[in-house]
Write a structure and sequence with these properties.
Blueprint lengths: L7 H11 L30 H61 L33 E9 L4 E6 L2 E7 L2 E2 L8 H12 L3 E5 L11 E7 L2 E2 H7 L4 E4 L7 H14 L13 E2 L14
Parallel strand pairs: 3-6, 8-9
Antiparallel strand pairs: 1-2, 1-5, 2-3, 4-8, 5-6, 6-7
Length: 289
């Protein structure tokens, strides 16, 4: 289209079309741009052929700068992602450590059962004796030791045992009673054998007789007093069942004394021995303490 150069209005319109005015938008003042800041693109208010050509060139420049910036931004994003990943990796072991510590604390708070080892033969200590204890042989309950304090007659005595006085009747023998022949002789013979002596009293079967006298065989040392009185002829051998363990021995001594006509046999006191069916009727009381 041809325009008359003398037409002033047409010339101004053409100039406006070639160089249209730029419309600026008011914004707050931006911070000072750095060397890497992207320049602001100012677009014409009304696009023209020349404006469109200029805009195309400027967009190419902006796109080129935006690609570089995009690369930088991507690099920053990658660095940020790596930093976050590293931070998470540091936190995970810390949380795992805290969990282990919590479980260990809970285990310590609960009582634990300790398995005891099973004992073996080698675990049992062997105790060696360090001192040998002497064991005393107890005196048989059928034997007692005492001291003769009084002679009653030829076959009865009083004996003190552990501070207590008891009356003892000889087992298996018999002598005459008071007022009968040979009483004094038999009592004197018994007195000479045991008075004041320590005697050993041995039980047969029975403990006491009907008069509550102990029934015993009497020994002074190794001397069997019951048998000695029979052997000397001052006592006769008489069986008092069930206490008859020495009956045969006493009867053999009686036969010797009778054959020798010793003492009481010489005056015909004994009739040759017999089995007693009763004990002497006279009982001499124990002395009053």
């Amino acid at each position: 289209m041809q325009i008359n150069p003398n037409n002033t209005q047409a010339a101004e319109l053409l100039a406006v079309l070639k160089n249209p005015p730029v419309k600026r938008v008011a914004h707050p003042p931006p911070p000072q741009p750095s060397s890497t800041s992207t320049p602001v693109l100012e677009l014409p208010a009304t696009p023209t052929a020349a404006g469109i050509s200029s805009l195309t060139k400027k967009r190419k420049i902006v796109l080129g700068l935006s690609a570089s910036g995009f690369v930088v931004i991507c690099g920053l994003c990658l660095c940020l992602f790596a930093a976050l990943s590293f931070s998470n990796g540091q936190n995970e072991p810390t949380q795992a450590t805290a969990t282990v510590i919590a479980k260990a604390t809970e285990a310590q708070a609960q009582p634990t059962k300790t398995a005891l080892p099973k004992p073996t033969l080698t675990d049992t200590p062997r105790i060696e004796p360090t001192q040998q204890v002497a064991v005393e042989t107890p005196t048989p309950s059928s034997e007692q030791i005492g001291t003769v304090t009084r002679v009653i007659d030829g076959d009865t005595i009083d004996v003190t045992i552990d501070g207590h006085e008891v009356r003892v009747r000889y087992i298996g023998v018999n002598t005459t009673e008071k007022g009968e022949p040979c009483f004094s002789e038999a009592a004197d013979a018994n007195n000479n054998l045991v008075l004041g002596q320590s005697v050993r009293l041995v039980k047969d079967v029975s403990e006491t007789d009907q008069y509550d006298r102990l029934l015993r065989y009497v020994y002074v040392g190794d001397l069997f007093v019951n048998a000695e009185l029979v052997r000397l002829g001052y006592a006769e051998a008489v069986e008092y069942p069930p206490d008859t363990s020495q009956a045969d021995y006493l009867e053999s001594l009686e036969a010797q004394a009778r054959a020798a006509n010793l003492n009481c046999y010489a005056i015909g006191v004994f009739d040759g021995g017999a089995v007693a069916v009763s004990t002497p009727t006279e009982q001499i009381p124990l002395p009053t303490q």
